[in-house]
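Re-run requested by the PI after the first attempt was lost when the workstation crashed. Everything re-entered from the original request form. Ligand of interest: magnesium ion.
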Amino acid sequence: MAEIRIDNLLKKFGEFVAVEDVNITVEDGEFVFLLGPSGCGKTTTLRMLAGLEMPTDGRISIGSRNVTFLRPRYRNVGMVFQDYGLYRHMTVFGNIAYPLKVRGMPKADIEAKVTDVAKTMQITEVLQRKPDQLSGGQLQRVAIARMLVRDADVFLMDEPMSHLDAQLRGHMRAELRHLQKEIGVTTLFVTHDQLEAMTMADRIIVMKDGQMLQFATPREIFERPATEFVATFVGEPQMNVFDCRIRRSDSGYFASCDGFDVPLDTAWVDTSGGAALLDRTLRLGVRPEHISVSETQDAKHPIKAKLFAFEPTGAENLYVMDCGGVQLTTRTSTNETAHFDKTEGTDYAIGFDPGWLYLFDSNTGKTLAFGSQSDTGNTEA
Ligand SMILES: Nc1ncnc2c1ncn2[C@@H]1O[C@H](COP(=O)(O)OP(=O)(O)OP(=O)(O)O)[C@@H](O)[C@H]1O
Ligand SMILES: [Mg+2]
């Protein structure tokens, strides 16, 4: 087991910069996720940790060892690839046993280890089959089992659940999280699925265009996103964001958006920059769960809205509203809204929770003001 330290990691393919400025320390035993859209450099980063790709610049240490240019076999790293990387001509047993055989482990010890890990991963009954005789879920377990037998210092997993159906993914999320905590091996897990990262991670690295936007706990990422991109990438349905200008009237500050005005908390605006925020084009963000819906306009629901689409999901209702030509999504639990008639075109009134508003810089995308009710724990960027 070991801590992973990455300093100023850079990877170029020709002139193309695939990964840039990655600086992180993953603690011993920590479960850390690399989250970002397709092509943002997740696999490349993981391959540099495994030694399958050489960095253009920077330094990688595992424990006290500088492994930056060390060959893969000397790193003591276990990896599950995006496509599992199993040998098709070998049985499941042969696949799991392979890394142990290569290291010259005695046959009896290999038998015992493979039997043991197969039990943990619930694949005992398929040990004599070949990979093409397995389901996606079984394949994934075999790939993970092969990683687990290695007694590695670090586990690296590249989208190991991307081929599974929704139900199996849900099941595997809990199982993998449990297993990682039980074994306690420092693990880096790559995904573009925000739900996977939010539910399983100790901490998440959000990446975009080869750069690291934020490295923090799921809660910090959700409540105190460093940029508008992070804010909209996590959370489903995603945060509503509008162009706006902050203005001042006799009754206090308000955000003037295209189609409607949003009253703001005076203390919040003052502590977030006050007059410096006035009359600039900014972006105002609010998550669907922080918009309340009412049948009548009142102080808490000052914004007129017309129901554009109603989307019941079972446990909650999503209302896509039209506010003066701008669409936004609100979310409420079903029992709160059971009395609504839900006819498209019906007039409602909505209100934004002033404690859960965000302001983003429209040029840099950086967060200028967090929701005043968000977790104020330390945010590492
Ligand atoms: N060997 C290579 N030569 C040239 N460009 C490469 C090479 N490998 C990766 N790239 C480019 O580097 C960028 C990052 O690729 P990478 O595979 O790390 O993305 P990713 O975040 O893992 O994406 P996905 O979610 O689709 O797997 C991409 O633009 C990709 O085309
Ligand atoms: Mg990838």
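Saved to the shared folder this time. The chain has two domains: 4-233, 240-369.
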